[in-house]
């Protein structure tokens, strides 16, 4: 296959259509394709730029953006790296929950730390602790009601 030479500047100015314009979609994008297109545009990349960065053809990226299915599994980590997002964010539905940062776990309390230590005890001692705590909780419930 022959390599194309770049068009002359005079032709570029008179052309009503360039490769960067793209065609209008006749069908709505699938949810995964719409998500990929939005993330690509947010990253300021064209389909060709993204394709080159992940080692794929531009036509493949265009297909993924039109498709309702996610890209193949071998391409997902590459896409996430180039787009600067996690694979989870790449595959989740667009919406307020997908854009929220992950929730940090609550700090570990004294009781939780204590029960983690109880879990390391022999089974008989765990049963004694469980018996005592259960009796204490039952007594508290009776007083509260």
Describe the structure.
By secondary structure, the chain is mainly alpha-helical. It folds into two domains: 23-99, lambda repressor-like DNA-binding domains (434 Repressor (Amino-terminal Domain)); 110-144. The protein has nine helices and no strands. It has helices at residues 9-14, 31-42, 47-54, 58-66, 76-83, 87-91, 96-99, 110-118, 123-144. The radius of gyration is 28 Å and the shape is elongated.
Would you state the CATH class of the largest domain? Answer: Mainly Alpha
Show unreliable segments: 11-19
Q: Ends: how far apart?
A: 85 Å
The helix/strand class is mainly alpha
Biggest sheet layout: none
Number of domains: 2
Q: In percent terms, what proportion of residues is strand?
A: under 5%
Outline of this structure?
The chain is mainly α. Helices cover 57% and strands 0% of the residues.
Secondary structure blueprint with pairings:
Blueprint: H1 9-14, H2 31-42, H3 47-54, H4 58-66, H5 76-83, H6 87-91, H7 96-99, H8 110-118, H9 123-144
Helix pairs in contact: 2-4, 3-4
Pick out its properties.
145 residues, 434 Repressor (Amino-terminal Domain), 0% strand, elongated
């Amino acid at each position: 296959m022959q390599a194309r030479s770049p068009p002359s500047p005079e032709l570029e100015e008179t052309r009503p259509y360039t490769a960067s314009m793209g065609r209008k979609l006749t069908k709505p994008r699938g949810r995964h394709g719409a998500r990929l297109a939005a993330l690509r545009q947010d990253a300021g990349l064209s389909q060709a730029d993204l394709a080159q960065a992940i080692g794929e053809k531009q036509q493949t990226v265009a297909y993924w953006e039109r498709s309702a299915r996610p890209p193949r599994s071998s391409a997902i980590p590459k896409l996430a790296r180039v787009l600067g997002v996690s694979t989870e964010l790449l595959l989740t539905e667009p919406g307020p929950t997908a854009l929220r940062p992950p929730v940090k776990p609550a700090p570990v309390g004294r009781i939780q730390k204590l029960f983690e230590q109880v879990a390391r005890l022999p089974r008989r001692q765990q049963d004694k602790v469980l018996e005592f705590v259960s009796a204490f909780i039952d007594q508290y419930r009776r007083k509260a009601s």
